[in-house]
Write a sequence for this structure.
């Protein structure tokens, strides 16, 4: 593994985000913006652009980590259909908030990367699908797009090259599943955000049944810098098989939560201690979810690991979306898991039985353990269910619920067994903001729902 | 069709201009559904049955289809929502940093539970999933605006500002 010392690492994605006016076109151009796109469009053929991205070993930053250049190369060249570039700015994986920084504070680097990508693909229409909640980011992106049209960077004659590109912001409306690429495309077509079976893959038959590439915001921002600084620079950062600068979002029990731009492969403990200021309140580390809430959890003793695709895969988890959720030694793991499972049960689109039913069952079983009504066989049942949900559905939302469940139940089994053994109505101090259920503290409405929850399935 | 229910609402001229522009951005009308629902939300304050009828007519879709899509998504303001929609993020990273205290405080101060609206129609309280602002947890989104790094004191101040 190529080691990059932190002091030698220069930020590029977030270099200017703290400076005043960083989102404006003037600022961006004043710092060399759009020069890379101009060079790429004027000097390289589309195939050469794709080759360059392939050579850079850039892997997708949205969650799946698929090689970006390869994804681009799947788009058929000999087609009469329009080709679409869709930017996935839905950023909805719990613990992830990196794309928001790019869109709010430095939106032009996303437009520039999208320009280069669209040119490579021969696409003349680009949609940016942004989650509905991100209103400020939407406004900032829209303003940047307007500026770019005005300056001849978008439109009929991009940077004087004769290349045509139209870019449109498209707001989502609150659905995690629209971060899944085929669900996103359904939503963009004006439908419910239901994922579709692959194949056909979007590269062949995607948006409006035409060839479509869906790329994450950070991925496209990286493309800008690959063409600005070169493939060798990019590959020198972190492990060459999946290199580059990486935005990692640290949340939970740390002193300084935030988005940190670091070299791929940074040690997870260094990230937490040096960048995020260590565990808060002087507490001890208990566990970390390294890649958004759908990644398998790492117990404290497993956290001495490089934050890159391969190193995390070797620990049976994933880099995912780069959402690092840190938990201290006072965290109740049963409650933490319940929270995660509630999320996935809420967000399941309901098309596939293993997911629709499975996420709900897992939430209910975990809920009854949490509320003192667990049965001795429950943890094994959760493990069994998790196993049976994986790989049996149209998209990976079922797996995304099963991974944290399987890993938390098996790594923190004692906490589940303890709660079950302690049985009904025992007094609990729950770390996440006081007692969860104080006897008599619930309204009739909530009590009814809780009883329902505890009734099992 | 003579027996089709009459559409009672109308978009403003500015809104219609926006719809014209929108329709030029997509190969079919249906693709403009989410943005046109947003427009209805902006122009009428929320989306009720009449808004659905109007959107359906505008995009040549059936009202049933529009309802189906509308109810799939959770972020549109619906009929009966208060002037201020308080959306408390309750997902893990916010939970680890005390969102339950925020939720309880709001319930206590407003005298309502998640999913309910105050009698004066000022506030609707919602418990929502990840708002993508985990580094500034706990977070409450009030209409479009995020209020971040909240503690009880700031939350109380926020409520007072909104009431004024």
């Amino acid at each position: 593994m190529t080691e990059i010392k932190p002091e030698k690492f220069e930020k590029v994605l977030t270099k200017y985000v703290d400076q005043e006016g960083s989102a404006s076109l003037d600022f961006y151009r004043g710092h060399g913006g759009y020069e890379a796109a101009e060079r790429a469009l004027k000097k390289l053929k589309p195939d050469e652009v794709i080759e360059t991205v392939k050579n850079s070993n850039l892997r997708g930053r949205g969650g799946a980590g698929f090689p970006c250049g390869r994804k681009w190369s799947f788009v058929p060249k000999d087609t009469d259909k329009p080709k679409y570039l869709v930017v996935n700015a839905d950023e909805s994986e719990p613990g992830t908030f990196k794309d928001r920084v790019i869109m709010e504070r430095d939106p032009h680097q996303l437009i520039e990367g999208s320009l280069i990508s669209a040119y490579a693909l021969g696409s003349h229409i680009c949609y940016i699908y942004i989650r509905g909640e991100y209103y400020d980011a939407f406004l900032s992106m829209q303003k940047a797009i307007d500026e770019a049209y005005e300056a001849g960077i978008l439109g009929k004659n991009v940077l004087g090259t004769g290349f045509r590109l139209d870019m449109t912001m498209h707001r989502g409306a609150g659905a995690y599943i629209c971060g899944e690429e085929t669900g996103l495309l359904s939503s963009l077509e004006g439908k419910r955000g239901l994922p579709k079976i692959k194949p056909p893959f979007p590269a062949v038959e995607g948006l409006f049944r035409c060839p479509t590439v869906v790329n994450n915001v950070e991925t496209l921002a990286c493309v800008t810098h690959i063409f600005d600084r070169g493939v060798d620079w990019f590959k020198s950062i972190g492990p060459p098989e999946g290199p580059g600068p990486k935005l990692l979002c640290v949340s939970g029990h740390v002193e300084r939560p935030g988005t940190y731009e670091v070299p791929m492969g940074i040690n997870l403990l260094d990230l937490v201690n040096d960048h995020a200021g260590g565990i808060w309140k002087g507490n001890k580390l208990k566990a970390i979810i390294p890649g958004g809430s759908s990644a398998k959890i790492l117990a404290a003793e497993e956290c001495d690991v490089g934050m890159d695709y391969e190193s995390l895969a070797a620990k049976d988890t994933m880099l995912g979306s780069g959402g690092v959720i840190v938990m201290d030694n006072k965290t109740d793991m049963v409650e933490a898991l319940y929270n995660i499972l509630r999320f996935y049960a809420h967000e399941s689109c309901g098309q596939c039985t293993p997911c629709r039913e499975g996420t709900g069952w897992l939430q209910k079983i975990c809920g009854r353990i949490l509320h003192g009504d667990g049965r001795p066989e429950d943890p094994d049942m959760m493990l069994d269910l998790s196993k049976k949900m994986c790989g049996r559905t149209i998209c990976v939302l079922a797996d995304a619920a099963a991974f944290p469940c399987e890993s938390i139940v098996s790594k923190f089994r004692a906490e589940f067994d303890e709660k079950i053994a302690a049985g009904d109505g025992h007094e609990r101090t729950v770390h996440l903001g006081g007692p969860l259920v104080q006897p008599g503290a619930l309204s009739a409405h909530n009590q009814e729902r809780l009883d329902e929850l505890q009734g099992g399935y | 069709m003579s027996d089709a229910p009459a559409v009672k609402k109308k978009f403003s001229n500015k809104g219609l201009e926006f719809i014209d522009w929108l329709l030029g951005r997509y190969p079919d009308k249906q693709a403009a559904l989410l943005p046109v629902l947003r427009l209805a939300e902006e122009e009428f304050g929320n989306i009720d049955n009449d808004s659905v009828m109007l959107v359906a007519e505008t995009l040549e879709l059936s009202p049933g289809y529009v309802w189906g899509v509308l109810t799939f998504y959770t972020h549109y303001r619906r009929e009966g929502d208060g002037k201020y929609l308080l959306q408390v993020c309750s997902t893990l990273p916010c939970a680890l940093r005390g969102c339950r205290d925020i939720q309880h405080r709001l319930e206590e101060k407003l005298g309502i539970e998640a999913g309910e609206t105050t009698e004066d129609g000022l506030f609707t309280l919602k418990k929502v999933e990840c708002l993508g602002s985990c580094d500034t947890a706990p977070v409450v989104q009030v209409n479009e605006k995020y209020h971040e790094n909240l503690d009880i004191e700031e939350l109380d101040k926020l409520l007072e500002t909104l009431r004024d």
About this structure: DSSP finds 18 helices and nine strands in chain A.
